[in-house]
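pasting for ref
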Amino acid sequence: MTKNQLYERYILPESTISGTECDFVCYFRDQKAPVFEKKPAIRQDEDEDKLYFECIIAANPPPTISWFRDDKPVESKDRFQIKCDRKGNSFHCALVIEDVDEEDGGKYKVTAKNNLGESSATINLNFDTEEEEEEEGKPVFTGKPLIKQSPDFKSIIFECNLTADPKPTLQWFHNGKPINDGGRYKYILKQVASGFLVSLEIAQVGSEDGGEYKVTAKNSVGEGSATINLNFEGDASKKIPGGKAPRFPKKPAIKQEGDSLCLEVVLEAHPFPKILWFLGTKEVKEGPRHKIKKKETSKDTYVLTLEIIDPSPEDGGTYRCNAVNELGESNANIALNLQGAEEGPTFTQKPKIIPKENGKLILMECHVKSKSALKVTWYQGTKAVQETIRFK
């Protein structure tokens, strides 16, 4: 058996447990996901009637190579030829275009994929200017930066998403002056599935902290930046007059109203934000057992309520009220523990008197609902009735 055969071989071992199977793949130690040893470059032959996009890829097992133009697949036919020559674990790949004209301009991408991973690189073909290789991996901030409040309401956090490869270094600025990591300021760079989460946390915020904040991210490929404004009441530069980022100034409360539990939070914000309730990571929407309410108690101040009708132990968990407006985002968390909670006994019918034996005997009867065994005590007035010959 050759190495190439082993790459695709799956072994199904017998199990001592009936009906159970498991899969695994046999790999070699020198395996590797595709990596571009040389990113795409453009070359024109001497006759100037052919154009070559060329790159070198290292991979083991051999990768599947695909080319795209403006996100549309390029097939090896007519004026386009796709070539790939192997030397060891290196692959010299090329897309050849014959009789090139201006209509062939655009963004070209090559992807290499094997069972260990995938890699891609892009290059632009531009007839108006010199062909320039796209700066793959340059830091790019995606989405609008947000202002959030820490759960203890003592700090604010600037947060934005970033893509970069390799991992960048950060520098924050306040009104053009560098901010160093330490003291009241805390830099955070956290890797996430989409790239990096960039944050600046500021403790003990005061009016002097208002103004423009800028973050720059640098790596060996390039540099990117993003800006955000922190505005307070009375700041003439604020975009929304009297605007307030969402803030929960008080601890959440849990109240019981009849057969319902009400989770209440106090919110300050302007304009009124979008409100979402969650149990764990699942959104709680209004329905037969859940009612979502809002009550304005004063200017820019609201009481938000999530009512849970006929709660059960399955309703227990961590609830979160999320508030977002144009100026920021905030969350309030509430832990609801209903484990072990039981309903108390419930009288389903009022007591009734049933005469028997021509009035010589009376029977007092009532119906009770309970999930557990009952201890029953009867009273005459305030005095407990003991079981005797006359009372049973």
